[in-house]
Specification:
By secondary structure, this protein is α+β, with helices and mostly antiparallel strands. The chain has 5 helices and 21 strands. Strand 8 and strand 9 form a beta hairpin.
Length: 328
């Protein structure tokens, strides 16, 4: 018996040693960036449907997503399965959010892609300036083989990321935001079907919500502006962050249009909202405010305007960006 066991143990030892060697060998920067590009493009190329779970700060929420691609573009439905009912329908960039409990429908044109598993914009090579991209081993997620990709920040101005990527399609199966070794927030599919047939009626809001005359529709408009149209300028920004867009938006609960500046380092995004302080209302309390997961908030007042900076970056970075806002 010993003679049979010894070769088997040696085989396991050699296999384990080869695995360690393979994982420790440096991967080419180009190959790693190819994975990033696959993650960015996959959600626009494949049908998929499944249930994913969001977890952060001891809070967990599950959602069901159905996504279809055809000659007319993308169609998507995301339904939150926990708590009050929230259902989002998307036709390319046109979005409708249904809140059955309050019988309200919010419509908005999506100007920035950021819904799991569609978490990455179209990245450029600039992402390598801020992150070391490392190809790690493979792990199974929701029954699929997933390639692990680590994005390790080169400074303390941003969080790290860990992606589990479906090896065939490039679709994200799982994603975690990391503060060094600690997971701040995480999305993960518990079940998913990739590239299957999807009935178009599932993605039609009119098929789900009949006779909505008692419902109130609220149109949230966004006006994209050219560079420099806003009365605000940005001073010195944290390394790697650049302005992506500036716009005016009417937001839920706001009576006036709000100025909105968006910044990104090709992965993390930060929004700066600027609105006048309304007379006879309490002034904003400057300082930091916590949110769930990776989102941090910083508020300051300048020239009778409230400046709120919100983003998935550390507190020191959110303050540097918020303090960089200047009136032209």
């Amino acid at each position: 018996m010993k003679n049979h066991i010894l070769p088997f143990l040696l085989l396991l030892l050699v296999s384990a040693f080869q695995t360690v060697i393979a994982e420790s060998q440096p991967q080419s920067s180009d190959k790693a960036f190819d994975w990033i590009q696959k993650v960015a493009t996959a959600p626009r190329q494949y049908n998929y449907s499944g249930t994913f779970v969001y977890y952060a700060d001891n809070y967990m929420e599950s959602s069901q997503v159905t996504h279809k691609v055809d000659h007319e573009g993308e169609f998507e439905k995301i339904e939150v399965l926990d708590g009050s009912t929230r259902i989002v329908f998307r036709n390319n960039d046109e979005m409708k959010c249904y809140l059955p409990d309050s019988k309200k429908i919010y419509t908005e044109k999506r100007w920035f892609r950021k819904f799991f598993p569609d978490l990455l914009p179209q990245p450029s090579e600039r992402i390598k300036e801020n992150y070391n991209i490392q190809i790690k081993k493979q792990e199974r997620v929701a029954g699929y083989d997933g390639q692990i990709l680590m994005l390790v920040p080169k400074d303390n101005l941003r969080y790290g990321y860990k992606f589990w990527i479906h090896v065939d399609s490039g679709l994200l199966l799982k994603a975690a935001v990391m503060d060094k070794e600690n997971i701040i927030e995480q999305f993960a599919f518990a079940q998913i079907e990739i590239d299957g047939e999807i009935d178009a009626s599932i993605l039609d809001p009119d098929s789900s919500f009949k006779a909505t005359k008692n419902w109130k529709t609220i149109n949230l408009s966004t006006v994209l502006l050219d560079e420099g149209e806003l009365a605000w300028r940005l001073g010195k920004l944290p390394s790697g962050f650049k302005k992506v867009a500036e716009m005016k938006r009417n937001l839920v609960g706001k009576s006036l249009m709000v100025d909105h500046i968006v910044l990104s380092d090709e992965l993390a995004s930060v929004s700066v909202f600027i609105e006048p302080v309304i007379k006879d209302t309490s002034s904003p309390v400057p300082g930091f405010y916590s949110s769930r997961g990776a989102i941090n908030i910083y508020v300051r007042e300048l020239e009778n305007n409230k400046i709120t900076t919100v983003g998935e970056v550390p507190l020191n970075t959110i303050k540097l960006i918020g303090d960089a806002v200047r009136l032209q």
